[in-house]
Amino acid sequence: SQQGEEDPQALSIQEGENATMNCSYKTSINNLQWYRQNSGRGLVHLILIRSNEREKHSGRLRVTLDTSKKSSSLLITASRAADTASYFCATVGVNDYKLSFGAGTTVTVRA
Amino acid sequence: GAVVSQHPSRVICKSGTSVKIECRSLDFQATTMFWYRQFPKQSLMLMATSNEGSKATYEQGVEKDKFLINHASLTLSTLTVTSAHPEDSSFYICSASGTVNTDTQYFGPGTRLTVL
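^ inputs. structure came back:
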């Protein structure tokens, strides 16, 4: 079942600006993952953060996790037109292996 | 590494016919494969989980006789939409993981099904 909620639903920014999107979830997790989906394509795994981690970086991506608030954020720095895509968070429960996806944030980066 | 392919990428069929979608892990052995459905501008909804050599586990509300899943080998899973109807039109995406409780799933590019 879908447990994550993301905001904003859509985000439009200028190239070079930063993009921040948030994900909230309801039940305890083992880990939280962020994926990118280009229009009409499959998903690309971006980053995984475990429940005992608070922050993780990968290139221009920064993910934070606050288990007390049951929320996570994804920051894309110095955005590029190629970052235009939908971004989904997905959680894995404590005794589970299935991914439960959020509704997604559509990011448009204007050149 | 960890490439998953799907075939076909697009399919258009007449109402009442059956459609088979293949999901292959190209460079690793997939103990577990997952099938998702995605409606336009919506999130992915898990339909079923299949482990190689055993019956698929379907999520609540997914008709197992409607969506037949076969995971006969460690590199291939198939989803057959039987007696398709226009409401089955959707984007179907598979993913694969190398062990039962792995953290990361590798996703295929998806199959766009249109039922006329």
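Chain A is about 0% helix and 60% strand. The two ends of chain A are 37 Å apart (CA to CA).
thumbs up if we can close this ticket
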